[in-house]
What does this fold into?
Amino acid sequence: MKKQPGRPYVLTPKQKQQLKDYVCKHAVKDEGGCLIGEDIREYIRETFDVQYKLNNVYRLLHELNLSWITSRTKHPKQSVQPQEDFKKFPS
It folds into this structure.
């Protein structure tokens, strides 16, 4: 199957590296939750003044060898100790 031809990405290699660094650093937000495609799309627009459709954001992430599988989010006030205590209970 042939790859669909299309318009090339607008970001330079340096900008792509900056984007990859941003995604890796902000994958999990401090206030809880995780980075979503729309957040990345907004970052690209604000930082590089380039418009991407959401589908193309995911293609760009794939090109940067970033997998879009996220882990379960953690509440910012979550306490680890009660979880560890719970694991010690016999089943």
User: Anything to note?
Assistant: The first helix runs from residue 13 to 26. The chain has four helices and no strands. Helices lie at 13-26, 37-48, 54-63, 80-87.
